[in-house]
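Why do we care about 3D structure at all? Because function follows from shape, and shape follows, mostly, from sequence. That is the central idea of this module. The next example makes it concrete: a single protein chain, its amino acid sequence, and then its structure expressed as tokens.
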Amino acid sequence: MQPDEALARLRALGFGGADTQRLFAHFADAETRGKLGHGFSRIEWLETLDLDPAARPEVVEAEGSFERWHGRGALGYLVLDAVVRAQLADPPERARLIVCEQTFPTGMLGGWVRRLAEGGLVSVLTATSPARLGPPGGPKVAGTNPLAIGIPGDPAVVVDVSMGAVTWGDVIAGLADEDQLVPFGREQWHKAFALALGLQLLVDALKREPGFGAVLLVARPESDPVPALRSLGARLPGQS
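And the structure:
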């Protein structure tokens, strides 16, 4: 799908101009970074869903170091976009924990933490999704539940790891078969599965309602560890 077609199809879904541009920017960034499972192929998937383009996320709690957001029927992409914009506009004094209820799909988590890092904030983000991982031969009990970490730098250091050997986005994009969606690590699969389950329980324990959600920790950095690592000559995560 070409960019012009992607924009047209997002508009056809009923999204307003600002939301269309926000969704397009996220998908285009994924395409640029080679994350095709989170790129324009997601628009075809969105076209199969029952969407409410007019829905708006809401902040239901705000206590300085803690916020709770509710999707109110908005796409998870737009919930996290609103959360990121809010943190950049009003950064925490030291740190802030944000719990997002009814927030799905959440897209390429690295894209959200990258924006925070480019705004000078350290962040850690995880999100839950439909149960697609389980022990070999056992039930599917955990989502791929990625973990993304953003550290300010020039450029920012961005770590974004799904707990699956492939992502669900790869399956949607036709880049992988669903039977390939297992915990990564081969004979060490139990490590990825344990982390996926732990992240799911973390999010679920902080939510008040059933459904998928996200948890974001954002903080002001106290030091700059990146230059010392770059001086070693290693290519750091998130580097082009």
